[in-house]
Amino acid sequence: MRSILALRTVVLLSFFSTSVLCHDLDENSIHSRVIAQGNNQFALKLLQFLGSESHQNVNLFFSPTSLSLALGMVFLGARGESAAQISESFNWSSLEREKVYSALNVLLQTVTSHEHEQFELELANRVWGHQALRLEKAFVNEMREFYDTEITLRDFKQDPEGVRSEVNQWVHQRTNGKIKDFLAPGVFNSDTQLALVNAIYFKGLWKYEFSNKNTFLAPFYAFGSQDNEEVVEMMSQTAKLNYFFDETHSCRVLELPYSGNDVSMLLFLPEELDGLAKLEMSLTVENLKRWTSMLTNTTVSVMLPKFKLNKEINLKTVLPELGIHDIFDSSQANLTSISETDGLFVSHAIHKAHVEVNERGTEAAAATGFVMRKRSLDMNEMFHVDHPFIFLIRHHPSKSILFVGKVLESRSMKEQTNTRGQSSDEL
């Protein structure tokens, strides 16, 4: 059986109101690299923030690409300090506004343009507006030009639940049925003016597949402690893979490519059981570049647990900590390029993501046993994931981090980690 990775993420931003030439293409390509680098920096900054003391004991998964495209839609309509905060947080400030729009469009096109049948990678944007909202013509045209989306007008005042149902149905469809009931009842009400939604879906087969015959039960030391031993289904294989061990930061880096080679998973495993927090702080853009440049193709013995994560993040509480706060404040938000309606601001910002790494159609493990932490006597490098780790999903043509995740433990979370009281994390 082939191992399969399926990912789905969605971002919602809802608004309330209290009342080309070849030269241009080359230039846009350069600017899109600037955008990608800024997005990657934001991704690692968000990972570090969510790995801080107040968030450190939860599994994590999100899509920085989805986040940047959704906030890019807001950036189209933001002005003044509201726009500056978004631009500075993503390091877009070196580009003129129009260049940011074009570069985001190039990024969108690059990510979704592929000729491989072995994986699916789709990005979609959709905007719902209240039928009485006086939208700026330039905003409508720019959404069409740069995001390839029209604005669907609905009556939020009379039927907010009907619009919510329509949004949920669209999200369900664009994520291949994996994200259900995206919006909880009550997110929309009679004051809702606009909803911006971005969805990303990826499904890929490993280039070097795992065999279900080599899957077995093994220990996983949750939260980096031998006192929290859990039993998981561990996939295993030995293959020629890109690998690097950094003695300075005491971590191992492994790249698992997907069929087609456009996308790969990077795994970061601290040498020590409890070394994840230290590794998170060292995972900077500079170190990421250095580690990936040092990867060497060699024979590696890999053990990787199957895992599934469903994660919802309330961006309204997270983004202000990263410098984006005016858009959530009815007295400070400047979204006048969307509409001249007084007091337009972002009332809800929700990011929901799903990832599953498994062996398609696999039943129970074919062998039962426990694997101890011990070096092999042969010359193969060892990458045995039996304690917390970080993973990134990278899109090589655009140099973008599509997804970021962290696995700390295998059992479903006992405490509520999102605004709706639904959190499911399991290996």
From TrEMBL:
Signal peptide span: 1-22
PROSITE patterns associated with the record: SERPIN
UniProt KW keywords: Signal
UniProt domain Serpin: residue ranges: 44-410
UniProt cross-references to Pfam families, sorted A to Z: Serpin
GO terms, molecular function: serine-type endopeptidase inhibitor activity
One GO location term (cellular component): extracellular space
PANTHER family assigned to the protein according to its UniProt record, in alphabetical order: GH10112P-RELATED, SERINE PROTEASE INHIBITOR, SERPIN
Family to which the UniProt record says this protein belongs: Belongs to the serpin family.
Protein name in the entry: Serpin domain-containing protein
